[in-house]
């Protein structure tokens, strides 16, 4: 009986929703149009050239970089200075999935290097992951991307050190259990790993080379970006054969297909890049070795993030519209709240960002929409610095680990620092 | 008459993880490895990360066999897991 009533309520509300659907109201129709246009723009401009290579890079980070080497510096006996430094950048390596940040934070706090480094890690973890930085730089411009990366690391150091100093007399009961570090199973020499990542990063950067197309350095590089990208891809193919033992005939087949597409459709480089990416998947999938792990990590990234991101883009388009167009929320509202670069606008952005929950990477389209609706670049950075690091749900969990007092201080520090940094960034010209 | 003891010992497998994709992968792989090697076992998933510290585990997912941490921070293949749990 109860379930029948539930069904009736559900049916009724769906019917009411459709009955009163504001189709034909210009603002609603416009918002739906904007949502579709924005999603299409992302799919066309960002997925093949930027997001797919970025998934492979994030996958390579998870599969090839040694977590044990990093964790050594976050353990109980690590030198303090080193553990702050490592904690503030290690999010790139350790926090590939956002669900690992909080357990690690709890681990570093309770059995590892202590409150300061734990807080530094907690802050930098979500902000500095490779996918987030790449997507921010690609869509919001490299200045904000760079400011976000540098800001996040600096911030992590400052917030961590301040937390440790404020609570210096407060020695939480430490867990005396021996820490079990992951086994060291990465036998590849450092220079090989470094070269491999440099090639991957190079492919991503040159394939997405933008900027001024008419004159100067950017234009000079723009003219040769595809030859450079192809050269790097060739190096990658050789490395995959000699270091990762992928069969030569398969690599040759992928290279041939990619080259053929590049020659037949010189104006549509996306075709060649897409085939090369699929080819890489064909080369690496299902293997038992490091290369197979690389594929598994990249694919699990893609599976997890693509639906969230496209969903987030659609919602952002509906709410805020493309830059220069309006969504369901009038631009005048946005401009009055976070336009310009007043301290108030920066504070509002930092404060609301701290409590809001952003699903992985969706902060990027949302901020793009806000910027297009008149948000200043200072408040945009403030939101980026405070947003992904904190949310109401994560505050509750943090509070269960370190207590409400420390949590309140942490949130306050993040909001104040994000406000300040955003305001300073907003003062810079350009 | 004495039966060989080992045959009746129940292995205790614990998966530590907050419920993310990797943790579920590890749980599934461990179950498959245990089933295929035909041991008697019980499998427990621990999602409360305040308890991770009791094992000294910082990076999830982790596999604990009879109280000993065998895997942390990755999902090994089923073949590798068989060696670890036997």
Total helices of chain B: the number is: 3
Name the chain pair whose interface involves the most residues.
A-B, 29 and 23 residues
Shape of chain B: globular
> Mean pLDDT of chain A, as a whole number?
85
Order of helix and strand elements from N to C terminus of chain B: EHEHEEH
- Structural class of chain A, by secondary structure, is mainly alpha
The level of helicity of chain B is 25-40%
Strand order of the largest sheet of chain B: 2-1-3-4
Which spans of chain A of ≥5 residues are poorly predicted at pLDDT below 50?
Answer: none
Kindly state the mean pLDDT of chain B as a whole number? Answer: 81
> What proportion of the residues of chain B form beta strands (DSSP E)?
15-25%
Question: Structural class of the secondary structure composition of chain B?
Answer: alpha+beta
**Regions of chain B with pLDDT < 50 over 5+ consecutive residues?**
none
Distance between the termini of chain A: 64 Å
Number of strands of chain A: 0
Could you tell me how far the N terminus lies from the C terminus of chain B, measured between alpha carbons in angstroms?
Answer: 26 Å
Question: Quick one: overall form of chain A?
Answer: globular
**Total of DSSP H or I helical runs spanning 4+ residues of chain A:** 21
Describe this structure in words.
- The complex is a heterodimer of chains A (430) and B (86).
- By secondary structure, chain A is an all-alpha fold.
- Helices cover 74% and strands 0% of the residues of chain A.
- Chain A is globular.
- Chain B has 86 residues and is of the alpha+beta class.
- Helix content of chain B is 34%, strand content 24%.
- Chain B has helices spanning 21-37, 52-55, 78-85, and strands at residues 11-16, 41-46, 62-65, 68-72.
- The mean pLDDT of chain B is 81.
- Classes of the chains: A mainly alpha (430), B alpha+beta (86).
- The A-B interface holds A 67, 71, 74, 94, 97, 99-100, 102-104, 106-108, 110-112, 175, 177-182, 288, 300, 303-304, 400-401 and B 18-22, 49-50, 52-60, 62, 69, 72-74, 77, 79.
